[in-house]
Amino acid sequence: MDSEQHEQAATPSLPLRGIRVLELGHNIMGPACGLILADLGADVYKIERPGKGDDTRWLQGFGAGFFTCFNRNKKSLAIDLKRDQGRDLFLRLVEQVDVLIENFAPGTVDRLGIGAEICRQRNPRLVFCSLKGFMPGPYAHRLALDEVVQMMGGLAYMTGPSGKPMRAGASVTDILSGSFGVIGILAALLERQQSGQGKVVQATLFESVAFLMGQHMAGAGVSGQVPPPMPERGRAWSVYELFTTRDGLQVFIGITSDRHWRRFCTTFGFADWAEDPRLATNQGRIEARSWFFPELQNRLHMLTREELTTLAERAGIPFAPVCQPVDLWNDPHMNQSGGLAVTETPSGKEVKLPKLPLRLDGHSFDLRLQPPAVGEGGGDLLVQAGIGEEEIVALEAAGIVAARSCRRR
Questions:
Q1: Residue 408: its pLDDT value, please?
Q2: Which helix (H) or strand (E) holds 298?
Q3: Which residues sit opposite 243 in a β-bridge?
Q4: CA of 277: how far to CAs of 263, 270, 288, in Å?
Q5: How far is residue 26 CA from its own chain's centroid?
Q6: Among 43, 302, 332, 376, which has the highest number of CB atoms less than 10 A from its own CB?
Q7: What percentage of the chain has pLDDT greater than the value 90?
Q8: Does the record carry Nuclease as a key word (predicted)?
């Protein structure tokens, strides 16, 4: 039994088992798309440059974790696409796969001679997924980044206070665009079962932000009023705030019904408020905020975060401690529910990272392959494409390709 058969036998229920993917992805959007397909069981081959491989392997600072986060469950194949032999080899591989993902700059794949038209001539069943900054139109030629489209699409405006637009605290647009790419790929694969033909799938950063902004656009259309940034939105609930506890930490409390309020007062021992008719309704509590809310802050400040969250859970009201991303490593729910996968970094260290937030029949999608070294596992696809050992050795000697066997699963 070869390595691919062994892997498939160990994971027979994965929904995309048997689907082969070439990923020409860099940074986040393309790799995020490939990650989701890989977690779902597809054989995803990350195409990299011989030698150093993907630039995200070596990023420091904010981008230090990009490669580790978005490249598990993949294999790697290094090909020099700027040389004729590398391009010809890549097109031979295109004939063997179901999906190609690319998020290179506009026009790059066409200049390399591996654009959608050429690839689909070689393999009419190919689903070609192009992830870009913008759909075809006046902006199509522009380079885009997550932060760029958050600014121009209104997300940064809605996130920060007036005059201080602020990007979201994660690469939400890159990841969302990659996810829409997956939706398009799955739809094209399903349609292919009937037509026998692949499709060109397009998903983009700017249009993804516009989709997120749809709720605010609709609200403006209905109300006739331009929505204010989220930090300045109007008050719908009397208690929907951050509170600072005795130990200097913060907890969010949201009381969004009068039932919540009654349970809150009973559990926290606020009998005086439970019996006060001025506070019996949400509107009454809003009208009483000038005297009621400062006292609420004082009362909750007497509690530690642990005491406050324990009481809030007992009361059955919405609450959340304000946490940092690294707090998720030790989060009891993430750990006991099996939501984290121990993943190797390029330096060999281990870090727990979230699995896909998705289950089928109660089963999560586990880590099967650690993020690959440059060329790791790519030999499998070369063999499947009928490329013999002698040719592989010659290509490696010429610096056209780098491939090696997979490490442990």
A1: 47
A2: helix 289-301
A3: 251
A4: 16, 14, 11
A5: 14
A6: 43
A7: 92
A8: no
Q: Tell me the C-alpha distance between 37 and 129, whole Å.
A: 12
pLDDT of residue 405: 66
Residue ranges of the chain assigned to CATH 3.40.50.10540 = 3-213+335-402
**Cα-Cα-Cα-Cα dihedral sign, residues 29, 133, 183, 218:** positive
Spatial separation of the C-alpha atoms in residues 135 and 157, rounded to whole Å: 22
41, 44, 186, 254, 367 from 13: Cα distances, Å: 9, 17, 17, 40, 14
Please tell me the distance from the alpha carbon of residue 327 to that of residue 119, in angstroms, as a whole number: 45
Q: How far is CA 269 from CA 210, 250, 255, 319, 327, in A?
A: 46, 21, 16, 18, 30
- Give the right CATH number for 250-321 from 3.90.1140.10, 3.50.50.60, 3.30.1540.10, 3.65.10.10: 3.30.1540.10
- Kindly compute the dihedral angle of the four CA atoms of residues 336, 338, 344, 350, in this order, to the nearest 10 degrees: 0
Residues with Cβ within 8 Å of 253's Cβ and at least 6 positions away in sequence, in order, are: 239, 240, 241, 243, 300, 312, 317, 318, 319
| End-to-end CA gap in the chain | 15
Can you give the pLDDT at residue 13? Answer: 83
**pTM of the complete model:** 0.93
pLDDT < 50 regions, the chain: 1, 3, 6-11, 408-409
Q: What is the pLDDT of residue 397?
A: 95
The helix (run of H) or strand (run of E) holding residue 91 is helix 84-94
CA-CA distance, 303 to 261, in Å (whole number)? 18
Partners of 152 in the β-ladder: none
Length of the chain in terms of residues written: 409
| Among 265, 253, 136, 142, CA closest to 203 | 136
Structure confidence at residue 12 (pLDDT) = 53
The first and second tokens of residue 278, run together, are 């001025």
CATH fit for domain 3-213+335-402, picks 3.40.50.10540, 1.20.1630.10, 3.40.50.300, 3.60.10.10: 3.40.50.10540
Other CB atoms within 10 Å distance of the CB of residue 307: 14
Q: Determine the pLDDT at residue 11.
A: 46
Eight-class DSSP state of 60: -
DSSP-based three-state secondary structure for 213:
coil
